[in-house]
Amino acid sequence: GHWDEARRAFEEAVRQNGKLVATKGSGAPGTLDLDKVYNMIGLCYQALNKPEEAVSAFETGLQHNPEAFECLSNLASIYTDVRGDYLKAKMFLEKAQSVQPNSAEVANNLGWAHELLGDPAGALSWYRRAADLLSPQTHPQILTNIKNLEHRLNKEQSS
């Protein structure tokens, strides 16, 4: 119920274009950028378990702002979790990382993408980057990922 209502409200904001919504970076008081509105529409579709509609919304957000960090990150999530297209997910994550190079979340997700693509050394590098960005409050799962990959790489090197 509420996700669908929210989606309809955001879509109405787009239809009313000009009153509530602005183009990229205009920063007009009381407005939202179109990429952010489409990101919210995409999140609503994700919550409604409609990944194809979510992808469409996030991609529309990127048409309005090719550097829309949230749209890039959310597309990567769908390509990883729903579509299993890890290469495409990695591409979106790399673009997100270029927009916000100090995002520990993106660094961690890049580690996961590299791991899924069979690149443990690349994964380890990104997990370490995420840990460095979060230090001293590094999430225990990141530390576990690092430890497991170090063990795996050491084992591969010694055999």
Automatic annotation (TrEMBL):
InterPro entries listed in its UniProt record? CellSynth/LPSAsmb/PSIAsmb, TPR-like_helical_dom_sf, TPR_rpt
Q: Which UniProt keywords apply?
A: Repeat, TPR repeat
Report which superkingdom the organism of origin falls in: Eukaryota
Specify the signal sequence span.
Answer: none
> At which residues are the TPR repeats?
35-68
Q: What protein name is recorded for this chain?
A: Tetratricopeptide repeat protein
State the species of origin: Heterosigma akashiwo (Chromophytic alga)
